[in-house]
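User: Hey, quick favor. My workstation is busy. Could you predict this chain's structure for me?
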Amino acid sequence: MKNLTTPLSEEDIAKLEVGDVITISGYIYTGRDAVLPKIVKHAKEGTLTEVNVELQGSVIFHTAVSLAGVGPTSSNKLEIESSFEPLSKAGVKIHLGKGAIKSETVKALAENNAVFAIIPPVTALLESQTTEREIVCYPELGMEAFHRIKADHYQAIIAAAKGKSIYDK
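Assistant: No problem, here it is.
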């Protein structure tokens, strides 16, 4: 098991291989289909600091944050999967969610020294490993707002790295 703490370095990610089991601790962002297109727009416009977002070395967990906790949503939804490349270019190192992603997305991750990790849908367990939560921007989206949470050893499996995918046959 490889233990990672945010913010992540280029070297942290370069050492990861498909199938590695990791733990993630530290502050991570959360977002899904309602907010990620807005964050992509800020990244492309260079206005992330205006919404208090620093993506360099970050992790984005594809989830909403509710009173019940956090659990992964499908990362292959159009609005989510289309965020991988621009957000990786903006500094995101790990995209955390569930489901198979396209080969083009796997390639874009490799080109930006970023990875995709899958996490099982274990909302109750993850809630016990979430020690802080705050809305960073877009509070009007409720539980789908862009949050920053503090994780304590979230476990995940690297599903895409260096141009390879766990789903390749």
